[in-house]
Amino acid sequence: MPTIRQSIDHWRAAFAAAGVDSPRLTIELLLAHVLGLERGALLGMGEHELTPVQSAQLEALCARRARREPLAYLLGYWEFWGRRFAVRPGVLIPRPETEGVIALAKKLLPPDTRGWAVDIGCGSGVLAVTLALEFKQLRVLALDLHSMPLQVTAENARAHGVASRLWMARMDGLAAMPPVPLFDLIVSNPPYVTPEDYPGLQPEVLDHEPQAALVGGKAGLELPSRLLAQIARIAKPGALVLMEHGMEQGAALREAAQRAGLKDIRTEEDYAGLDRILVARA
Ligand code: GLN
């Protein structure tokens, strides 16, 4: 059976040849996963031989990764805001730029904020669950149009111990909510990719992640703009609105927010210095 060192050498080269990002990190994470260890524990284990079962498992996972299945789906989890969340096909894999929504909520709201938050299009539930964890008094409603995201969100809420403050509903945006001012915080990472950009996304995204979580209609703005109108109708006066968007959509969404009647509208940049999050007050 191959040793850890041999597996790393072999798959690092195979991943690089297949155009996989971060080949060394990828094989280390998959090896650690198969061996049931933290990645750091592999250090100094180079001559350790895999068992036949481990070798077969590693081979199968690596072959799938080389065919550009996303690493997060192969592992079954991904990190967000320093915590581990279950992910699987049918929910978008959490992106680091989405952590900006949490960073802004924490910057703009006191930790003992009470009342209700809503996450529109919750996917794996990273925003909803992280808000419930960071704001211990807050109740959170997680909405999604599809059932798989609600299942994964429920699983993540239970795993992180916040299921008693997190509710879920299957809904298209906020369309089915009664027009009662309920929410103090509204967050969303809606689909915002343009139909023109979508076919050019990398194979991991295009072939494996849910298109419904990515494509936002005309110019990628149709869904986000519709949501802003719904949000304005149902947020409590003064409620904080945080919506992720594409790097070229800042101005268009500020306008949409203005039209919807939101106030104190501005755009925040992501770690890369690109326009990424609309910030407004109801
Ligand atoms: N940032 C994501 C991507 O381009 C898009 C996420 C979204 O549409 N909400 O991969």
What is the topological layout?
Layout: H1 4-17, H2 23-35, H3 52-66, H4 71-75, E1 77-80, E2 83-86, H5 99-108, E3 116-120, H6 126-134, E4 139-144, H7 147-159, E5 166-170, E6 183-188, H8 203-208, H9 222-234, E7 235-244, H10 250-260, E8 263-269, E9 275-281
Helix pairs in contact: 1-2, 2-3, 5-6, 9-10
Bound molecules: glutamine.
Compact overview of the structure:
The protein is α/β, with parallel strands linked by helices and 282 residues long. The chain is 39% helix and 19% strand.
Bound molecules: glutamine
Q: Which sequence of strands runs across the widest sheet?
A: 5-4-3-6-7-9-8
Give the % helix. 25-40%
Strand content: 15-25%
The CATH topology label of the largest domain is Rossmann fold
Span of the ends, CA to CA? 62 Å
Task: Provide the succession of SSEs.
Answer: HHHHEEHEHEHEEHHEHEE
